[in-house]
Amino acid sequence: MPSLNIDRRRFLGAMGVLGAASLAGGAGSALTPDLAVAADAEFPVPKKGKPIEASVDPKTGDVKINDDVIVRYSSCVGCYSTCGNRIKLDRASGRVIGVGGNPYNPACAGNKLDFEAPLEDAYRSMSYANGHGAITHGTICGRGNGTLDGVSQPDRITVPLKRAGKRGEGKWKPISWDQLITEVTEGGKIFAELGEDQHVEGFKEVHDTVTPLNPEQPDLGPKSNQIAVMNTRADGRRQLNTRFATTFGTLNNFSHNSS
Ligand code: SF4
After folding, report:
1. How many whole angstroms separate alpha carbon 229 and alpha carbon 237?
2. Ligand 1 centroid to 145 CA: how many Å?
3. Nearest CA to ligand 1 atom 7
4. Phi/psi of residue 87, each to 5°?
5. I need a surface site. Which of 93, 104, 109, 158 has the fewest CB within 10 A?
6. Any residues with CB less than 8 A from the CB of 173 and at least 6 apart, and which?
7. 129-166 pLDDT, tens digit each
8. Which residues of 210-245 are buried (b: 16+ CB within 10 A; e: fewer)?
9. Do the bridges between strand 84-90 and strand 96-101 make them parallel or antiparallel, or are there none, so unpaired?
10. Nearest CA to ligand 1 atom 4
11. 84 CB within 6 A, ligand 1
12. Ligand 1, pocket-test mutation among 83, 102, 147, most atoms within 8 A of CB
């Protein structure tokens, strides 16, 4: 395909007219000579910024994949809408370099793609090739786009944190998963290093479905009700947590919302 030296504003303007014209069912007849040149051109290669995952020939719909970029179609868990998203990763580093909408997912794509449609059609759906574009692509909201920072921002919490100062002082230190499990299950004077002498009950002590939690208030049930499970979304995690709560013997198993 011939290359075209066209600035970004002119290119987007041309694509906008092409999209509108094709929606009206008459792209070819609506083109001025200048825009016809744009229709024959390959998408411009960005001179800076993040690499694009593919380019689509706007005339033939041929898709050229950039093997340096991996694309995975997934689902956003930013909220209950559960929109589809698509994640771009740099193949060499594994780093997430972009998040966008998933054109296969009805939660975020008007006129979604059929699940059987090949991935090349997903690229075409996000281009203006062959009359496609602007009607099938998926979108995600700002929070969904924040996935990028959620994965890569350096303050993300990836290990257990234990209080390292007085309550409310906001001081924390990272601990190992083994230490977390041991202290949570065994309990003990787990803040002795801070000069605190109180005994903290571990799961082993609380796992008691016979002894009343408070003999003066038998309606509170057994001691095992001391454990409260703050649950999560119904995407598998809730079922797992509920199984734990039931097995442990606590009634205090709450939903992600207030129910
Ligand atoms: S993209 Fe936005 S609306 Fe959709 S699930 Fe994610 S956070 Fe919710």
Report:
1. 12
2. 8
3. 78
4. -110, 130
5. 158
6. 161, 162, 164
7. 755 555 557 889 988 988 777 777 788 888 999 999 99
8. eeebeeeeeeebbbbbbbebebeeeeeebeebeeeb
9. antiparallel
10. 83
11. no
12. 83
For 52-104, the pLDDT digits (tens) are: 899 888 888 899 999 999 999 999 888 878 899 999 999 998 888 889 899 99
Q: Output the CA 143–ligand 1 centroid distance in Å.
A: 6
The neighbouring-strand residues paired with 200 are 188
Residue whose token pair is 């970029």: 69
Per-residue tokens: 240: 């797992």
Q: Which residues contact 49 (CB under 8 A, 6 or more apart)?
A: none
Token pair belonging to 192: 């002795």
Q: The tokens 């041309």 sit on which residue?
A: 14
Single-letter amino acid, residue 84: G
Q: How confident is the model at residue 181 (pLDDT cuts 50, 70, 90)?
A: very high
